[in-house]
Recover the amino acids of this structure.
């Protein structure tokens, strides 16, 4: 895993896209693949392409939450580079015990080398958009 996938996603015509916004039963999906312009996507910004679709066109919607196991404990992943990952926690006692820093008053963060991790995985949580 070289990049972190997180947030809301959807399957559209068998391919996974980021699910960005909704207005009047229209959802915007985005991609970084310029080949998607052949399928009706338009350039939104540099290396980002978007397409409005109907909710009914999506076969699955879900939220992806990335996790890492560090020293036997599970942490949410915030960022990643070639050799390290950023772990975050809201548990002050645990943060102090493991020498996390507080970049914000609501969470603690620590960058660790990837080889210090037991594992990295994604949690895929079904996302109900019927009320959107």
């Amino acid at each position: 895993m070289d990049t972190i996938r997180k947030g809301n996603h959807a399957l559209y015509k068998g391919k996974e896209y980021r699910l960005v916004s909704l207005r009047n039963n229209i959802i915007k999906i985005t991609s970084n693949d310029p080949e998607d312009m052949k399928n009706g996507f338009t350039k939104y910004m540099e290396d980002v392409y978007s397409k409005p679709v109907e909710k009914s066109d999506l076969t699955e919607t879900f939220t992806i939450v990335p996790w890492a196991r560090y020293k036997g404990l599970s942490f949410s992943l915030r960022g990643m580079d070639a050799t390290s990952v950023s772990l975050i926690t809201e548990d002050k006692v645990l943060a102090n015990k493991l020498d996390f820093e507080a970049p914000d008053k609501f969470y603690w963060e620590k960058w660790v080398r990837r080889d210090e991790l037991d594992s990295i995985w994604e949690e895929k949580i079904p996302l109900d958009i019927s009320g959107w």
